[in-house]
Amino acid sequence: MFEKIPALDPDNSAFWTSGKNNELRICHCPQCQTYQHPPLPVCPQCGHLEVEYKPVSGKAEVVSYTVNWQPWAPNQKVPFVLAVVELAEQKGVWLMTNIVDCEPEEVSIGMKVSVRFENQDDIWLPVFRPEVNA
Amino acid sequence: MMNYAEKQVAIRGIGQSAVSRPAKDSALRLTVDACLAAIADAGLKPSDIDGVMSYPGAADNATGFSPVGVHDVRLALGLQPTWYCSTALESAGQMSAFFVAIQALAARTVKNVLLFRTTGEASARARAKGAMAWGGSDCQVFGMWQYAVPYGSVSPAPWYAMYATRYMHEFGLTPEQLGSVAVHARKMAGLNPNAIYRDPITIEDYLASRMITTPLRMFDCDVPVDGSTAFVLSRCDEAGDGPNPLIRIEAIGSRFETGGLRQPTDMTSFGAEAAANMMWSRTDLKPGDVDVAQIYDGFSILTLHWLEALGFCGKGEAGAFVEKGERIGLDGELPMNTSGGQLSAGRLHGFGHTYEACLQLLGRGGARQVDAPEVAVTCNGAYGLGCMLLTKG
Predict the structure, then answer these.
(1) Which residue of A12, A17, A66 is the best one to mutate when testing the B interface, meaning the one whose CB has the most B CBs within 10 A?
(2) Which CATH number fits domain B154-218+249-392: 3.40.47.10, 1.10.10.10, 3.30.470.30, 3.30.465.10?
(3) pTM
(4) What is the pLDDT of residues B165-186, one digit of tens each?
(5) How far apart are the first and last CA of chain A?
């Protein structure tokens, strides 16, 4: 998926470009050690005014998903799987993403997935695929 | 009970344009029809209107989401208001327009507020496929949309489909139960001359309908239309001499929570419970006192969330509550979405639900009239959340 890509800014750049080095970096508070996504320039948990972008394992679990059959724009390819996944590092850190590299009917809630990246221009889009040797 | 602002305010008049897809008339023409009907219904003249309110203001773009704003109406009706406002998307949903008007009336900033909402989404779709897609025509996306649009989520449908998937997983909701919302809506629409789709469907028709985004089928998604709905609101102590019994605003509730795109925490509800709790905290009435319910149905799953949030059934029980439609029928314990809702009457985007609540309280429901209702609940939203309890008298 793509079509339209995020416009980079100081808060979101690490998230959208870290895939260039094949790693997923998530906004993290160095004070209270919690992750947050989408990124914010401050920590809403403890109020710390600085955040860092910390590499994570890229492992996650499917919280929910849908197999989308209806194209919403003229060139949209279907079907695709839209999902919310929870990162292994912290409960409640959820990413909206696509589940790729498998048949849509293979996706299920609780499925273990791992990140890979799709590149367009200056953006590396994190998508997730079934974890091999699970 | 405290004399909250909303208890000082009443809906005096209601109006609705023809609803169609697409309309022959312009969106502004439809809006004029609805507004003039509401003003006349209140026993007023356009010159009596000193406030104009809408949601979400004119969005001059291709989506048809809101083709008419307060300035258009002021000019078309020759109004000379001293007070006007549109609430934005960043508000308690469609109902936020009512909430802001209530504050202004209670504060005596304004006397007679004309409040409307117009959608032109059917015309927009007729002009261009994909007109309603999120993200605009730029090649880049900004703000919260950047976390959804690049993944193909350019409609709320797959977004809320994920809520339905999770709800099914946790509570065992069946397709037949979810489909009961749509089958019921079509049954009610058959009794509403201004509804878009009036031919009945069966649960078999529902199950055979096209899959849009699992588990949501075509009949789980509301119907884009062209149409306008309008209301006139005044203070209760200044609205005594109109032709209609007053529709009093007994209690309001809202919640600031953006489920889905930004840090969702629960995919089996979306904050509606907090909005409902606020509403119930502002009244002595209880869920069991409600005679008719207009429950938001942009997608069928949202109706189930709201039924639970408002306390009509327990968490996870809404599927069984609506199954086969008996409890929510005209003679059931909770007559629901008596116009056919957005699923069958058309996506008037929340305002249709409040209009129908008023229509029922005024006894003008015709073939779909509930027996002498005195208390109605109406709720809007998914992205922004608002609910109101209305009483006759």
Answers:
(1) A66
(2) 3.40.47.10
(3) 0.96
(4) 999 999 999 999 999 999 999 9
(5) 26
